[in-house]
Amino acid sequence: MTATTRTNKARQKARQGAKTCIRCGRVLKAETEHAATVLGIVGPECEQYVVNVLAQLARNGLRELAEHGEMWVPAVRSVTGGWTACPAAFEAANALAQRMGLELAPSLFDPETQQVRVVLTRASVRELLRRAQETKGVLA
């Protein structure tokens, strides 16, 4: 007997994961209202907590990161001929993030504007979400 295999349509459907809240991990139903933040999709119960954490970012000098999920810093030519983030500009932005216990990482070079996109590392995003967990009883 031959084993049954899934069709392409079934494989595609299996790959489409359900939307889950980035803060609590609960599966969000299609009819449930949810908000999309720069960190990801948030359920209705968790929205205020994540908004508070993003407001903390903005208050600590990382407004562009809180609003857009990324920052752009000037790029300079490296010794190898490639482009890298300007050390002074990157260190200034990273110092603000490190005051909050977070870390930034350069992720993409834009050749037209000669700037490098800087984003939070995955560990820093997890740390922000952990802080959102801790602020459950504190809505400021």
How is the topology of this model organized?
Blueprint: H1 8-15, E1 35-36, E2 41-42, H2 47-59, H3 63-68, E3 71-77, E4 83-85, H4 87-99, E5 104-110, E6 115-120, H5 122-134
Antiparallel strand pairs: 1-2, 3-4, 3-6, 5-6
3D architecture notes:
Helix 2 (47-59) packs across helix 5. Helices cover 38% and strands 19% of the residues. The protein has helices spanning 8-15, 47-59, 63-68, 87-99, 122-134, and strands at 35-36, 41-42, 71-77, 83-85, 104-110, 115-120. It is flat. The chain has a four-stranded antiparallel β-sheet. A two-stranded antiparallel ribbon has the order 1-2. The chain has one domain. The longest helix has 13 residues, at 47-59. A hairpin with a 4-residue loop joins strand 5 and strand 6. It is α+β, with helices and mostly antiparallel strands and 140 residues long. Keywords: Plasmid.
Summarize the structure.
The protein has helices spanning 8-15, 47-59, 63-68, 87-99, 122-134, and strands at 35-36, 41-42, 71-77, 83-85, 104-110, 115-120. With 140 residues, it is α+β, with helices and mostly antiparallel strands. Helix 2 (47-59) crosses helix 5.
Label this structure with key terms.
single chain, 140 residues, alpha+beta, 4-stranded antiparallel beta sheet, two-stranded antiparallel sheet, 5 helices, 19% strand, flat, plasmid
Structural class: alpha+beta
Low-pLDDT parts are none
Average residue pLDDT:
83
Count of helical segments? 5
The helix content is 25-40%
Most strands sheet = 4 strands, antiparallel
Give Rg in angstroms.
20 Å
The helix/strand series, from N terminus to C terminus, equals HEEHHEEHEEH
Q: What is the total domain count?
A: 1
Strands, total number: 6
- Read across the widest sheet, the strand sequence of neighbours is 4-3-6-5
Distance between the termini: 64 Å
**What is the 3D shape?**
flat
- Strand percentage, roughly? 15-25%
